[in-house]
Design brief:
Layout (H helix, E strand, L loop, with lengths): L1 E6 L4 E5 L10 H7 L4 E6 L14 H15 L4 E6 L1 H12 L4 E7 L8 H17 L4 H9 L6 H12 L3 H12 L15 E6 L7 H9 L5 E5 L6 H4 L1 H12 L2
Parallel strand pairs: 2-3, 2-4, 4-5, 5-6, 6-7
Antiparallel strand pairs: 1-3
Helix pairs in contact: 2-3, 4-7
The site of D-malate has 7 residues, from loops.
Amino acid sequence: MKTAFDQGKGPAVLLIHAFPLNHTMWEPQLASFTSEFRVVAPDVRGFGRSQPQSPWTMEEAADDINALLDSSGVETCAVAGVSMGGYIALAFWSKYPQRVRRLILANTRARADTETEKTARNEMIAGLQQNGTALLPDRMLPRLLRPNASQETVQAVRKMIDAVHPSAAIYAVMAMRDRVDFSSAVHRIQCPTMVVTGSDDVIISAGEARALAGTISGCRFFEVPHSGHLSNLENPEEFNRALLAFLRP
Ligand code: MLT
């Protein structure tokens, strides 16, 4: 895992991106966050500038983050993950809770995949093995964004998807398929936590996110209006307002 972005002064905030994107998905957050925080936004294994591609697990991604914080001289930080980034954030909290000052779980879930979801992952892996990443835009865009998302947002997401190497996508889908179930562990989270959802998220519904928030003691919950699965990109004004209010000491 490479630190693709590390700028700003203040308490550290680590931002972990979704599948199949890279750290540039945080573009709408960077300018408003770096005036108050040190923002560290890595590329997950195989994505963006992070090479090489080899199979990985969420726990190994958590180890990557741990090593990254060590090498960046960051002792503790707020950790925010969108979707796959949230799976990694939970694995990181589970292994290194002492490093997590605050936790933001956006458009994500604590439970593992169901058997049906695992089957869909295997079909996607087979498709990626046969045809490369050509299937990704049609498969992912309608799930990640609302049908009426701005053209600018659609183009930005498409650009990230177009840059993905097939094996990076395959290994990430495997890691998501095989991730462990944290649903009975999250009640142990002791740091301030916020669950964020998108009003029109078709991958992880607002209702499911609200239920997750209910299992974490003292958890804040925020539903980003007019937003699908990538709430930080579709409605950055509301996403940033909620996050900054939560992050400020
Ligand atoms: C993501 O947005 O990171 C993924 O779509 C999440 C998933 O497939 O579980």
